[in-house]
Design brief:
The protein has about 210 residues and is of the alpha+beta class. About 25% of the residues lie in helices and about 30% in strands. Among the domains are: about 1-40, Double Stranded RNA Binding Domain, CATH 3.30.160.20; about 130-195, Ribosomal Protein S5, domain 2. It has helices spanning about 10-15, 20-25, 35-40, 90-105, 155-160, 180-190; strands at about 45-60, 60-75, 80-85, 105, 130-135, 135-140, 150, 165-170. The strands form two sheets. The protein has a four-stranded antiparallel sheet. Strands 5-6-8-7 form a four-stranded mixed sheet. The longest helix is centred in the middle third of the chain and has 14 residues, at about 90-105. The relative contact order is 0.13.
């Protein structure tokens, strides 16, 4: 990151150490326009490819093919992003999708919202949430410890990189479209930050 030359105000603030968390970025309504910003804040960010497809386009010079990839990035501790990249070769397509996922980074809450468990570990989600992308609609419900990830393979990839171990899911729509399926899961997890769970009322200054 030493050779990174920021091109935006946010990039300069992050590199100079004036902003050190994703929460500060969202609180100040900054928009992330450089993937290096996310690399600086989360050096341990992991990535997973959730969908690979070939795209064909007819041009004057003939038929052209390119790879279209969907990549999910996360740190397993409340940070998640998803992006789609396209390029004539596989590796550049991955890099494009990863960069897009970092620009789309979001935060979500982990917890234990299952009435059957009620432990203090952050192995699930704090409450039921809904998400959608295209025709796909998904409902995620907190599950007790030991349940596992009750969903399809694409959903398991998203939830694992998010650091979740026990979640129930209900899906409607064309879930065979893997990119929309993954986007719906990310959208659902992002909804956990639109409501403050009771466990955080005291720490947030909310009292009876």
């Amino acid at each position: 990151m030493d050779d990174w030359v920021p091109k935006t105000k946010l990039g300069r603030l992050v590199k100079e150490g004036h902003i050190n968390s994703i929460e500060e970025i969202f609180a100040n309504n900054y928009r992330i326009r450089e993937p290096e910003i996310v690399d600086a804040l989360f050096p341990d960010l992991r990535q997973e490819v959730v969908d690979v497809s070939m795209v064909q386009r007819q041009s004057d010079s003939g038929q052209q093919k390119s790879f279209r990839l969907t990549v999910v990035v996360g740190n397993g501790e409340g940070v998640l992003g998803i992006g789609v990249g396209k390029a004539p070769e596989f590796v550049p397509a991955i890099r494009a999708a990863e960069a897009r996922a970092k620009l789309n980074i979001t935060v979500f809450r982990r917890g234990c919202g299952s009435w059957e468990c009620r432990c203090d570990d952050q192995h699930s989600i704090p409450f039921q949430v809904n998400g959608s992308a295209g025709s796909v609609k998904v409902t995620l419900k907190p599950a007790p410890k030991g349940t596992g990830l009750v969903t399809a393979d694409v959903g398991k990839i998203v939830l694992r990189i998010a650091g979740l171990n026990d979640v129930w899911s209900i899906t409607k729509g064309r879930s065979r479209v893997s990119s929309n399926f993954a986007k719906a899961f990310v959208d659902a997890l992002s909804q956990t930050y639109r409501m403050l769970p009771p466990q955080e009322w005291i720490t947030s200054g909310v009292t009876e």
